[in-house]
Sequence to fold (147 residues):
Amino acid sequence: MSEEIKEFESYSGPASLSPIPLTVGSVPIKAEDKGKIKANAVQAMHHYAQQEMDMLKKQADLIMQQVREIEDRLKISEQIYQSDIRFTPVVNQVYHLYKKEDYFTLSLIGPGEWGRKAKPLEYVASVRLLGDHSWQVLQKNNQGTTT
Fold:
């Protein structure tokens, strides 16, 4: 027996508060392995902390993707407003942005609608004018340069 149990062999208080079993029918009292309890708690803490960090990383990735989309939208919108527009754009209408040498032009003609004549312009993007006069990028040519 351990020294701790020897100290309580002559316990004389209420049976419900006894640190050792007093009768054969008493519930056995077992010493807890505090190291194991702490190790399990630390493991659970790390597991849930890692889950939280993974969730925050996914949210950060989503936010960064949204930032890149807004930057692309802003860049193309600037190109549109600096381009040669020979008509008044209508809200919710789809337009196509092209580049020729050092300037941009906005057109109603899509990249697949030029017919037999070779198109002299480099396709940049298809866009839609929104009600707040910003531009929604519907399709973007990732192969060409759009600077």
Observations:
- Residues 84-140 form one domain.
- The chain has a mean pLDDT of 82.
- The longest strand covers residues 122-129.
